Amino acid sequence: xxxxxxxxxxxxxxxxxxxxxxxxxxxxxxxxxxxxxxxxxxxxxxxxxxxxxxxxxxxxxxxxxxxxxxxxxxxxxxxxxxxxxxxxxxxxxxxxxxxxxxxxxxxxxxxx
Length: 112
What we know:
By secondary structure, the protein is mainly α. The protein has one domain. It has helices at 3-20, 28-45, 50-57, 73-106. α1 (3-20) runs antiparallel to α4 (73-106).
């Protein structure tokens, strides 16, 4: 992959984040984007890179024990899921922007 191709694909992945905010949370579009972006980062930087490992550690779903009044439980859980999803997308955008900036400054990393 060339430097220009890597920059193009990273920019596309970043731009897609705004579309994912409008799609079903953890739906088909998100899954496709997640897998293709992981593959891109793995291809460009390698499995042992900070970019790849940080991206893989991002959590897009609410975790933990949430105890709410049963009357509002569904609403509160939906809010927690949405907040976690948006937080994950923001973290992903930060990782991808950092990866993009790294390539712009230093070029593609050498393959080991």
